[in-house]
Design brief:
Helices cover about 60% and strands about 5% of the residues. The chain has helices spanning about 1-30, 35-55, 60-85, 100-115, 125-145, 150-165, 170, 180-200, 225-235, 275-290, 300-310, 310-325, 345-350; strands at about 220-225, 245, 255-260, 270, 295-300, 330-335. The radius of gyration is 25 Å and the shape is elongated. Helix 1 packs parallel to helix 8 (about 180-200).
């Protein structure tokens, strides 16, 4: 009887943590509109439903909700990978094609083991297939972790959870260890939930982690500034969470800085990845407005960007960034060396930043 109550407590705890995770994910989605968060929120809804089905002995529900849990999780992971395209990864979506043969080989292996629960049981094939997708999601999280460390532990736990799910028919073959399986599964799912919360509340998602006391006196909109003005801006806003795309290493510690370089290292962005910079700028301005602040974005290397992308592309890029600034009552600052531009180019840039 005590074990029955303890089992119920573990299920309730798992559902409670999952519900909290769902709340954090959906709230963060509403704040920042990162599409992946919407799918991850749905994934935890299906996890909760799966836990209820498992506890009530509804095998069809277990199969259905396990499948939806893994499906929405991996879909969100791939959406996140696509949106943050500056992440260089060896994981290729086409590798999903290896899943059917792996699934078949695993079924044959189980049959030769002679376990009482094989892939012929009603829910087992769907649960095992879900485990494969969890594994795939975990490896993608690991790749993302090379650039964004907050997803590294999430990737490890997701892989461990995938292995745990893959062993579902083995676990069913040892019912006397049911409480051990329940406890282990709950520990893994709670760990995934906590590390996912850590990911979506980290600096990869949030720019304004701490309360901001400094007020920005700059007028909303876009402005070209000289290198001399830039040095003054760095001193004036040294304690403000400015988003900066730079080539100079001499920037305030409080700034959220991305160094533009063709070298692949943490905190560095390829100068050709304008889409990634535009997305981050948009999210930064939205978050600043949502928290009642005036977002400030600095680009100190317009000449460098033009060299890699061409002038026309840079003009479109800057025009989009100015729109983000105006819509969200933010400030876009472009540091410029006038001697590096032709008169025509300089006139166009001034028109954009007017």
């Amino acid at each position: 009887m005590n074990e029955e109550y303890l089992t119920l407590f573990v299920y309730v705890l798992s559902i409670f943590i999952a519900t909290g995770t769902l709340g954090v994910l959906f709230h963060t989605y509403l704040m920042h509109r990162v599409k992946a968060l919407l799918f991850w929120s749905a994934a935890w809804v299906f996890f909760i439903l799966m836990q209820v089905a498992f506890y009530t002995g509804n095998k069809e529900g277990v199969a259905l909700f396990y499948s939806f849990f893994s499906g929405t999780l991996i879909y969100g992971v791939l959406v996140y990978l696509k949106e943050y395209g500056d992440i260089k990864t060896s994981i290729r979506p086409e590798l999903i094609g290896v899943i059917p043969p792996i699934f078949a080989l695993y079924g044959i292996f189980l049959a030769h083991l002679g376990l009482p629960y094989e892939l012929s049981s009603i829910e087992v094939p769907f649960v095992v297939l879900s485990g494969i997708f969890f594994l795939f999601s975990g490896f993608v999280f690991l790749e993302i972790g090379k650039k964004k460390k907050s997803s590294l532990h999430l990737g490890i736990l997701t892989i461990a959870f995938g292995i745990f799910v893959l062993l579902y028919p083995v676990r069913l073959s040892f019912p006397h260890l049911s409480f051990v399986w329940i406890f282990l599964g709950t520990a893994l799912s709670v760990g995934m939930a906590l590390f996912m919360i850590n990911l979506v509340t980290s600096r990869e998602f949030l720019f304004f982690e701490e309360p901001v006391e400094l007020k920005v006196v700059l007028e909303p909109g876009a402005e070209l500034i000289t290198p001399e003005d830039y040095e003054q801006i760095k001193e004036t806003l040294k304690d403000y969470p400015v988003l900066a795309f730079v080539r100079s290493l001499n920037v305030p510690k409080k700034w959220k800085v991305y160094y533009l370089s063709t070298e692949e290292r943490e905190g560095r962005i390829s100068p050709t990845n304008l889409a990634y910079m535009a997305q981050m700028t948009s999210e930064y301005f939205r978050e600043a407005r949502g928290k009642g602040h005036k977002g400030v974005v600095v680009i100190d290397c317009l000449e460098y960007l033009a060299m890699y992308n061409g002038f026309e592309s840079i003009v479109k890029f800057l025009a989009a960034l100015k729109d983000f600034a105006v819509i969200n009552n933010g400030v876009l600052l472009g540091v410029i060396d006038e001697d590096a531009w032709s008169k025509r180019q300089l006139a166009i840039l001034r028109r954009i930043f007017s």
